Structure formats: structure tokens, C-alpha cells
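Postdoc handover notes: sequence design on the structure in folder B. Input C-alpha cells:
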């Protein structure tokens, strides 16, 4: 997700201007896992303490979207809230507790 100018960090969905939104759409969980944990991206995860403060609430949510749909930052915020209030389920889940793709 980014603005038309290519700026992903200026998208504000939260009151705190220090919270940034990072969203992407993937074909399946396995492809996303491969990118996150088996590519150069893993170096960023290892060094995240240098870039980010620890967040105590849900900060990452996965959910299935229809083909061609591009979720908004507001949708992402809503999915985080669902995960925080209800835990993993069909509307929001995590890598640790994934939900099957709807048929």
C-alpha cells in the first residue's frame, strides 16, 4: 500500500503519527511466509528493535480478500481491532493461528 506518489509512510490510519501502515496482498499464506521469513526481509525483522518501538496490542493481522480487491488502511485497522477483541478467526488471523482460505 502506498500513495500515488509512492509514499507508504504518509498513510495515517491511527491517531498516533508515529504508527505507520504497511499492507500488501498475497496469493496465499505460504508465499507471504516465504517472503517474510525466507528472504532478505528476515534481516529487517532481526533488526526491528532499531527501527520500531514494541507495541503491546495486535500489530499484524492477516485476512482473506476476494481476488482483485485492494484493502484500505481503514480495513486493516478494523481487522487489527477484530483480532485484538476476538482473537484469531475467519475475519482476522495470524501466522501462528492461520485460517483456511474460503472456498
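Designed sequence:
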Amino acid at each position: 500500500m502506498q500513495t500515488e506518489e509512492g509514499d507508504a509512510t504518509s498513510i495515517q490510519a491511527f491517531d498516533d503519527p508515529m504508527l505507520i501502515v504497511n499492507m500488501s496482498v498475497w496469493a496465499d499464506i505460504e508465499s507471504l511466509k516465504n517472503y517474510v521469513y525466507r528472504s532478505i526481509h528476515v534481516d529487517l525483522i532481526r533488526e526491528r528493535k532499531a527501527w520500531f518501538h514494541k507495541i503491546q496490542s495486535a500489530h499484524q493481522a492477516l485476512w482473506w480478500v476476494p481476488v482483485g480487491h485492494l484493502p484500505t488502511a481503514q480495513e486493516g485497522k478494523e481487522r487489527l481491532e477484530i483480532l485484538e477483541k476476538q482473537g484469531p478467526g475467519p475475519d482476522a488471523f495470524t501466522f501462528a493461528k492461520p485460517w483456511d482460505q474460503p472456498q
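Context for whoever picks this up: Residues 73-86 form the longest helix (14 residues). Don't rerun without checking with the PI first.
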